[in-house]
Amino acid sequence: MGASPVDSIHHSLGTLLDYNKDTFPYKEFVLGVMFTVFLWEEYLRFRYYRKLCATEVPKALREHVSQETFDKAQAYGRDKARFGFVETVFNLVQNALSIVYDFMPWLWNLSGEVMFKLAGYGSEYEITQSIIFFVLLTVFSTIISLPFSLYQTFVIEERHGFNKQTLKLFISDIIKGHLIGGVIGMPFLAGFLKVIKLGGENFYLYVWLFMVAFQLIMVSIFPTFIQPLFNKFDPLPEGELRTMIEALASRISFPLTKLFVIDGSKRSGHSNAYFYGFFKNKRIVLYDTLLEHSNNEEVCATLAHELGHWACNHTIQMLVFAQIQLFAVFFLFSQFVNNKAMYTAFGFMDSTPTLIGFLLFQFLYSPVESVLQFFVNMNSRRNEFQADAYARDLGYARPLASGLVKLQLKNLGTMNPDWLHSMYHRSHPELVERLNAILTPARGSKVEKVE
User: Fold this and answer.
1) Binding-site residues for Zn(2+), please?
2) Tell me: the pLDDT tens digits for 400-411?
3) Considering 126, 306, 418, 433, which one is annotated as catalytic?
4) CA 81 – CA 369 distance, rounded (Å)
5) What's the pLDDT tens digit per position in 161-187?
6) Hey, which of 105, 173, 189, 315 has its CA 20 to 30 A from 244?
7) Measured in whole angstroms, how far is the alpha carbon of residue 101 from the centre of its chain?
8) 126, 298, 388, 433: which one is catalytic?
């Protein structure tokens, strides 16, 4: 009997990975990649920061942006860039030290001691120990990152007029987030590890299916049960705007069932709008901050852009790509999960826990992930142009352009970008690029281009 398709794929791809994994310098490789990526991204940040120091409004935006607003946006960008540099250096040093001095083996052993003291279990209860490890790692990470979160929210965002949170709400969000994360994350982690244990050599297929199912469940319950724990959703009142949105949805056969306004201003002055739901049960959510600074035509134009993603199947496209990438990650992980040399290189001399193996593999996979993210961003920018074109073709060129300008001004977004920094980091095109694409004549129509 011939080999099964799964066995054939396993053998073919396994051949591509056929090198001496016992002598590979794992720790040195990870540290080298970390510092290489750091130097590259800081070079990009330096290029961007020079643009943020400019004092003259770019020619393309002079019609839309005052000198005062431009100066505010530049100052906001510089504050964020400086803060990002400090945070990145701190994280680099922290991660490097944790790898060099074997922090993960120490934390794994500590989780084993906690498990023994609490329940009297030994190392054979790997999944239980993994959950304790996950909890301890989350606690450590939260404590370490808390000063940065506080500074970003209550200094930078406060200084530039965006923060609306109180310290009480900030702390409440952290506590609620961790409680929900624990209620969902611990059973998920147990199931994830159990599937790998029971899946045998082809576990990557089963754990991938497990992840697909989990993602679909989370997409279903997050907006309905989890997000309302943090924000208030009110139906959009009857009136001209609701009538216009319903007419837009009917015009393009979008299966709109509910329209909500979310109290985004409770935490931030930034704006947004989105839709969610499966099949014939779609819901649209508008941030109250969007309604505050946009007129009805601009709100509809913004929604026409969002619905352009639906009409062009961008959500499905990105979902399919994400699942292909996820499958590849699990397959590649299956080639390393039992490699004792990898564990030994990072200080795990006596055990090869599956969760630890997956975390170590993430270190090794990070260069591939960086390259893939670059192409994901490229495709995302292409999708944004398509969604803009969809809104333009519906007759919303002018209100979409004015809405984007208002959104940029309201959010003090980047107004003097560096092309290389944007190409690497940004998932959305810059404002000038979008305006020129929106206002460029589609087929002989006379629409003025932004100069």
Assistant:
1) 305, 309, 384
2) 999 999 888 888
3) 306
4) 23
5) 888 889 999 999 999 999 999 999 999
6) 315
7) 30
8) 388
